[in-house]
Each structure stands twice: as structure tokens, then as C-alpha cells.
Design a protein that fits this description.
Shape: globular
Helix content: 25-40%
Oligomer: single chain
Radius of gyration: 30 Å
CATH class of the largest domain: Alpha Beta
CATH superfamily of the largest domain: Alanine racemase
Largest sheet: 10 strands, mixed
Strand content: 5-15%
Number of strands: 21
Number of helices: 23
CATH topology of the largest domain: TIM Barrel
Number of domains: 4
Length: 650
């Protein structure tokens, strides 16, 4: 439940620290985000206050370059820092546990398949020997080009594989790549062996294990014995026997598991790693040439900042995760007297989520507490007809609201409103009186809410008033394109204003996007104990833009977005810290034009233009339009076809 009212009383001093606390910036931001003395949201790519980027300044700079919101801003330096943070966490755990091998991350490009993102991660990961993971043939074809002349960096190939996928893997092996196809179902091993023989290659082979350990959280079904991918232990033993028969046990080099995605509970991680380590040790003792243990994905992101076992959080830190992984693998290996394998993880979400921010502008708002009343019929009505009984009751109820009988007054108003609606539907109440009843009802609810804000404890019956009276802020973006997980699975993303953070917010709102769909809204927001139903925002000022941003959107959102209402990709800008302070634009990817999204749906704009031109000529011929007007319409049509698919508000 939202209870922001006591913090929303105008006239009290408001400090930046209160804004940081209200929006939980330090909890979910992990040092990458803060607020400066101007009340603007800032990005700290290296988590250091000495080097920060003013997000509002960036948006204004983009606007001056004709790049309007909505826009996804990627902070490349955050990607570099995330990779370094991952490497350092495992490096410290390896040193602390005297682990006799190394660690490498492989970035699953399904998490963010945008070329610039993948290339940046691959470039920044070079110093740590990090690699890439693919889950399909098209992804592999892209990665084969990106990984040119890098034989020491791993490529892990997951997903179902047909003959051409396997052939591409074997060819990449022959080209010198360290590429490992992971057997997901038993038939794939025959394809691998067949193409290996054809091309004269001794392949590196991996196998995914169906763990008995259960998954956790929203994707719990992706782990365990009913999971989609992987081999049962009996099938792995059959694969072992087949390779032994072919004198190719040395080719079985990797064991892999997928404990789940966004694992919020560290206990599930420990169980999965422990089980996988025992599988590794047994196979190693049976003569397999295992060199790698791939612990899969699952490393979570604390979207709500609560540090708990909630689905949008995680009850462990990166350092704890790395320490547990290294310790458990080492313990099993030492107990079985087998060499320590190289540890590989596919922690895509933890790498990519933080570096992307979606910024969008507000278009306006709809408020329910705008309905005002004095409680005096001669001022609020002014007509000559007698007031119907339910309208009189609403007047009486409004005047009688006081702190001692708030619940009673609310019930009275609710009943009177229902009676007014019934009378209207039976034809006994005019439209004018219905409008008056509606105004009195909402004015009464507002009066009750304002008094509730002064109470130490709000009556249970009235707890929902804040949500019921919340504003709707209309925002220039598409949930389905830019935040699809918010709509599809109820994923929480931190959302807050990027300006005016030195002012106390006085409005509580839900966010509605610009699609013609009732699901195109966001009405759950991050909170340390439970998700909030409204977001604290500032009163909109006419003629002044008000920007909001959704954070931690770098994982999956761009890949999963769709074209609902033909709202396509937003502008994307890559921002870097400048060595001498400030920021600079490294790359700009223009968002989809109307023409582009129409072409996605197989409309040919070369055929659309002639149809409109014929209409214009017909209007001129029939005298409904001048020739100059017809030419202006055609120019307007061409301009809009080539324009941004989103609203461009001046």
C-alpha cells in the first residue's frame, strides 16, 4: 500500500537525501546512479562520485541534436565496469580458496543481441579472456565473425541444433575457434561425430546435465528434471560409452547446467553447483577429458533494491555468489582428488542490465482530485430543479466529513453514488445531476484521503484511497516495445523522474503508455518491502518538459520488444565519459521511422503514396481542396512517413 501523504505536505524542507531514499536509488543503483545538487539524476559509470554524467543534461543535448525522447541511452563505461566487477569477484574468490584454475564469463547474446552491445562486451572482456554464448544458428553466424583471430576465448553453443548448426560449429573449430557445442539432446552427439569425421576435426564437446536440484523464482521450471534442455544421467553415461568406443573421451571437455534465470535465493545456486561438481568429478574419474565446468546463468539483479528473496530481487551479493561457486567446486574436486576445472558462467543479465536507461517524456495527466466542491448547493449546482435524494445525500456527506467518522462518510458517499447511477440508468436522473453526483463523490473521497494522511494509522477500509485517487501520467513510450517484461511477467523496473529531484513530489500516479491497449500501463513500482501501486511524481508545469526514466533495462527488453500499434525501436545512443570530464556520444542508432515499421508488416510505402496522391487530385478536381493544399498534404504525408514512429512533442 502507498502511504506517501505525510511526506507530500507542501511547505516542508525537501533534501536530495530524501529523494534518494524515496526512490531507493542507492539500493537498486549499486553505486551507478545518484542525484546531484541540481536535483538531476546522474550516472556514475565507475561508481565514483568524481566522474558522473548528468542524465538531464544528456537528454537536453540529444534534443539539440534532433534526437527526441523516448530514447534508450546506453552507458558503455558501465558495461566495462560490470565485466571488471565480475572478473574481480571471481578473482578474489579464487585467490581466497587457493583454487588452481581460472574463471571466464561468456555473454549469452540472447540477453541483448544488438550488435553494438555484443561488440562492446567482447571488446571490454578481452583483458579477462571472456567469451560469448550462442543459442541458435543465426547467433552463431554473427559470433563467428565477431570472434575473428581469438583462439583463446571460448564460444559456448547452446540450444537445439540441426545439421547445419553443428556443421558451422565444426567449421569454426577448424578455423581455430575454441568453440564447444553443448549436447542438449542425445541425437546431437551423432551429428557432432559425423561432421567431425567429415572435416577431420577432434571437436570439443560439452553436455548439459538435467539436475535434480530445483530451480527458484519466476523461471523455476527451466531447471530440474522437467527442464526443457539437457540429458539425464543415464543418457550422459551412454554418451560417455559412445565416446569411449570411438576413442574420443578426451573430446568431452565441458559439463554444463542451467539452474534458472534471475535466481533470487543463494541456496538454489549452492545446490545446483554442488550437484554439477559431483557430475564433473565422476566423469573425470571415468576418463573424460573435462576441462571446463559451466555453471550457466542465474546470477540475479536486485531490481527493487530490497536484497531479499523476492522475485525482483536477490538475497546475495556478487562476491558471495562467486565465493560460494568457487568454494563448492573446489571442495568436491579436492575430496575426489581431481583437477580443478576452469569455471565458466553465463551471467548475461548481471552484465547487461545496468548499462541501459529508457528515458521518456510525459504528455499530460488525468487527475480525480481535480473535482472541487464547497458543499453548498447554491454554489455547486445553481439550478432551479429540486435535488434528487442521492445528490442531497452526497452534499450532506461532503459537509459532514471529519476525522472521527471517515469510514462512515466514505460508505455513505459510496452508497449515494450507486443510487445516483441506478436512477440514471432507469431514466430518473438527468445527465446534469449525474455529473454533479460524480463531482461530489470524488470531492468527498479527496477530502477523506487528505484527512487520512494526518492519521498515524489508516483504517483498513480506506487503505486503497491513495491508489483509487492516483493520477494517470501519460508517457511517450510503448510498454510492449521497451519494457515488455513489465507487461508479460510483472517484472519490476526502477522508475523515477530525472529532474526536479530537489523538490518534494506532491502527486501519486500510475503510468500509461501511448498504445491503444489497456495493458499498456505500469502500476507497480519498486519498494524495499512490497511493490507500490503508485509512483510519487511532481505536478506537471505547462510548457515545461517532465522526463521519467526506467533503469536496469539492458537485459532482454530490446530483444523481446514487439511492434504493438507499430511503435518500433526507439532511438539508441551510446554515451561515454570524457577523459577531461563530461560526456560524449560514441554512437547513435536512429529509431524506427513510420516507413520502417510499416515495412515490417509488409506494407510497401511506394504503393501507399500513389493512393494518397490520387485522393488529392480527386479533391482538387471536385473543388474540395486547392492545388496548394493538395501539395501540402502530400508533403506532410511524405514527412510523416520518414519521421519518428513515436510522438515528437515540441
Amino acid at each position: 500500500m502507498n502511504t506517501p501523504a505525510k511526506n507530500s505536505v507542501a511547505g516542508h524542507a525537501w533534501k536530495i537525501e530524501q529523494a534518494l531514499d524515496l526512490y531507493q536509488v542507492e539500493a537498486w543503483g549499486k553505486g551507478y546512479f545518484s542525484i546531484n545538487e541540481h536535483g538531476h539524476l546522474v550516472i556514475r559509470p565507475n561508481t565514483e562520485a568524481t566522474a558522473e554524467i548528468d542524465l538531464y543534461d544528456v537528454v537536453q543535448g540529444l534534443k539539440a541534436r534532433d534526437l527526441h525522447t523516448p530514447v534508450v541511452i546506453r552507458f558503455s563505461d558501465i558495461l566495462a565496469h560490470r565485466l571488471r566487477h565480475l572478473a574481480e569477484a571471481f578473482g578474489a574468490a579464487i585467490a581466497e580458496n587457493d583454487y588452481r584454475n581460472r574463471y571466464a564469463a561468456v555473454f549469452p547474446i540472447k540477453v541483448n543481441q544488438q550488435r553494438l552491445v555484443v561488440e562492446e562486451i567482447y571488446r571490454y572482456g578481452k583483458q579477462f579472456g571472456f567469451g560469448l554464448e550462442v543459442g541458435s544458428k543465426p547467433e552463431l553466424l554473427a559470433v563467428m565473425s565477431i570472434t575473428e583471430d581469438a583462439p583463446d576465448r571460448i564460444i559456448v553453443c547452446n540450444g537445439f541444433k540441426d545439421a547445419s548448426y553443428i556443421e558451422a560449429v565444426i567449421l569454426a573449430t577448424k578455423l581455430g575457434r575454441t568453440i564447444i557445442p553443448v549436447v542438449e539432446n542425445f541425437e546431437e552427439i551423432h551429428l557432432i561425430l559425423g561432421f567431425a569425421q567429415t572435416y577431420g576435426v577432434r571437436p570439443r564437446i560439452g553436455v548439459r546435465v538435467k539436475l535434480a536440484s530445483e530451480g527458484a523464482g519466476r523461471w523455476r521450471e527451466s531447471a530440474g528434471e522437467k527442464s526443457k534442455f539437457g540429458l539425464f544421467i543415464g543418457e550422459i553415461l551412454d554418451l560417455h560409452a559412445l565416446l569411449k568406443e570411438r576413442d574420443m573421451l578426451d573430446c568431452l571437455q565441458l559439463v554444463h547446467c542451467h539452474p534458472g534465470s534471475q535466481l533470487q535465493d543463494i541456496r538454489r545456486v549452492k545446490d545446483a553447483i554442488n550437484e554439477l561438481a559431483h557430475v564433473y568429478a565422476e566423469l573425470k574419474l571415468m576418463g573424460a577429458g573435462l576441462r571446463y565446468i559451466d555453471i550457466g546463468g542465474g546470477l540475479g539483479v536486485d531490481y527493487d533494491g530490497s536484497g531479499t528473496n523476492f522475485e525482483s530481487s536477490m538475497n546475495y551479493t556478487l562476491n558471495e555468489y562467486a565465493s560460494d561457486v568457487v568454494y563448492r567446486i573446489k571442495s568436491v574436486c579436492d575430496a575426489r582428488a581431481v583437477p580443478h576445472p576452469m569455471i565458466v558462467s553465463e551471467s548475461g543479465r548481471a552484465i547487461a542490465a545496468y548499462h541501459s536507461v529508457l528515458v521518456f517524456d510525459t504528455l499530460g495527466s488525468s487527475t480525480l482530485d481535480r473535482f472541487k466542491a464547497t458543499g453548498r448547493p447554491e454554489e455547486d449546482y445553481g439550478g432551479t430543479e429540486d435535488l434528487p435524494a442521492p445528490v442531497r445525500d452526497l452534499f450532506d456527506g461532503f459537509r459532514s466529513v471529519n476525522e472521527r467518522r471517515l469510514v462512515e462518510c466514505y460508505h455513505d458517499a459510496l452508497q449515494a453514488r450507486e443510487q445516483a447511477l441506478q436512477m440514471f440508468n432507469l431514466g430518473y436522473l438527468s445527465l446534469e445531476f449525474r455529473g454533479l453526483a460524480e463531482r461530489l463523490y470524488w470531492a468527498t473521497c479527496t477530502k477523506i484521503r487528505d484527512l487520512c494522511r494526518k492519521l498515524d494509522e489508516i483504517p483498513e477500509e480506506l487503505e486503497n484511497l491513495e491508489v483509487m485517487l492516483s493520477d494517470i501520467y501519460f508517457c511517450n513510450f510503448s510498454v510492449f516495445q521497451s519494457l515488455p517484461d513489465s507487461w508479460a511477467i510483472g517484472q519490476l523496473f526502477p522508475i523515477m523522474p530525472i529532474q526536479r529531484l530537489g523538490e518534494r513530489p506532491t502527486r501519486n500516479a500510475v503510468l500509461a503508455d501511448i498504445t491503444c491497449d489497456s495493458d499498456g500501463k505500469i502500476d507497480r513500482f519498486v519498494h524495499p518491502r512490497e511493490s507500490k501501486r503508485t509512483l510519487e511524481l511532481h505536478e506537471l508545469i505547462a510548457g515545461e518538459p517532465y522526463y521519467l526514466a526506467a533503469f536496469l533495462v539492458g537485459a532482454y527488453q530490446e530483444t523481446l520488444g514487439d511492434l504493438h500499434n507499430l511503435f518500433g525501436d526507439t532511438h539508441v545512443v551510446h554515451i561515454r565519459l570524457h577523459d577531461e570530464g563530461g560526456w560524449w556520444i560514441e554512437e547513435v542508432v536512429k529509431g524506427d521511422t513510420a516507413t520502417k515499421v510499416l515495412e515490417y508488416m509488409e506494407y510497401d510505402t511506394d504503393e501507399l503514396r500513389p493512393g494518397l496522391a490520387r485522393d488529392c487530385e480527386r479533391a482538387v478536381r471536385e473543388g474540395r481542396m486547392t492545388l496548394a493544399e493538395a501539395q501540402a498534404v502530400k508533403r506532410f504525408y511524405d514527412k510523416e512517413l520518414d519521421g519518428y514512429a513515436y510522438l515528437e512533442v515540441e
